[in-house]
Automatic annotation (TrEMBL):
One of its GO terms (cellular component) is plasma membrane. Residues 36-165 form the DUF218 domain. It comes from the Bacteria. This is YdcF family protein. Signal peptide: none annotated. InterPro entries: Cell_Envelope_Assoc, DUF218, Rossmann-like_a/b/a_fold.
Length: 186
């Protein structure tokens, strides 16, 4: 009996390691395509009202791809964080300060989580007749974000990761395993 229990544990660990490796590979291999719109997912805003380094890296990736003409519309999606700032509005201000035209930034202040961002983006895309989207977030978050967007009916979803890494990314990558399956079965 103990032998079977250990075998099951080993198989579950192998599954976890394989899936996590796939998440990392998917997230680090950007699918940079010409799309109708990009979506930058929100993150913490510092107490001084500036984007955190993680959020700034996502915005910088969007600016770089915008300047390379991969898209001309950017949805910034976030909520009001515990610091008291509307992430989406801070993100818009950052993009405009970095020469993205104000008319090219769409604010979604109700993107409190990945699922809400997907639903809100779907509504915006239908309203604007957009057919394709590029999600911009951290590498470990790309697979789940694409899954959420696909589950709300967005067929052409691509991903690009922010060029920012920190120690906490190891924890966040591990956390993506159960989060992915939570989204899958919802």
């Amino acid at each position: 009996m103990k032998k079977y229990f250990l075998m099951i544990i080993a198989l579950l660990m192998l599954f976890f390691i394989t899936h996590t490796t796939i998440i990392v590979i998917d997230g680090l291999n950007d699918e940079v395509e010409n799309v109708d719109v990009a979506v930058v997912l929100g993150n913490r805003v510092n107490l001084n009202g500036e984007p955190s380094d993680r959020l700034a890296a996502r915005l910088d990736k969007a600016i770089s791809l915008y300047n390379e003409d991969y898209f001309d519309q950017i949805i910034v999606s976030g909520g009001i964080g515990k610091e008291g700032f509307d992430e989406a509005k801070v993100m818009k201000d950052y993009l405009v300060e970095h020469n993205v035209k104000k008319k090219h930034v769409i604010v979604d202040s109700d993107g409190y989580n990945t699922q809400m961002t997907a639903e809100n983006t779907k509504a915006i895309m239908e309203e604007e007749s957009y057919g394709s989207v590029m999600v911009i977030t951290q590498f470990y978050h790309i697979s789940r974000t694409k899954l959420a967007f696909s589950k709300v009916g967005i067929e052409r979803v691509y991903g690009a990761h922010a060029d920012f890494f920190e120690l906490r990314d190891f924890y966040s990558t591990i956390r993506e395993f159960p989060a992915y399956y939570k989204y899958l079965i919802q």
